[in-house]
Amino acid sequence: MRHIYHCPLRWSDMDAFGHVNNVVFLRYLEEARIDFMFRLAREAASGAFTGGSVVARHEVDYLRPLVHRHEPVTVESWVSKLGAASLTISYEIKDTDTVYVRAATIVVPYNLKEEHPRRLTAEERSFLEAYFDDSAASDIR
Asked: What does the pLDDT look like over 41-62, one tens digit per residue?
């Protein structure tokens, strides 16, 4: 199963060349990840990720330019790696027939109060396993 997020494009997302700036794609990934880990996960498991999490790494392949339009772009995300104290979320930013970006983010659960990484809880792991698909991992190297 994949998480689907419809991300609106804003006029300010464009750069001097008339397409979405590379940095803005990271914001699109963030919006999808926040919707996945903080809205959807907490609806499914009320205690999921309430202690916090941090991004440890991003990898991004920019495949095609995306220009401003009124229709949102689709961000599909799924869990491609699941460890005891980290997970990798893979993404595609796309339309029906065009993939603009493939990316992956390593996320580390974090204890904000004590300021250190922590292990995934059983509740978080159970939620994430429903979105696990290592066969569709973003191969961006």
From this structure: 888 877 788 778 999 999 999 9
Strands 116-117 and 99-111: antiparallel
**Residue 18 corresponds to which tokens in the numbers above?**
């008339």
Q: Which two tokens stand for residue 131?
A: 């979105």
pLDDT score recorded for residue 77: 97
Number of other CB atoms surrounding residue 70 within 10 Å: 6
* 3-134 CATH fold: Thiol Ester Dehydrase; Chain A (3.10.129)
Q: Can you give the pTM of this predicted structure?
A: 0.91
Place of tokens 């961006």: 140
Q: Would you say 27 and 9 are in contact if contact means Cβ atoms under 8 Å apart?
A: no
Residue labelled with tokens 């796309």: 94
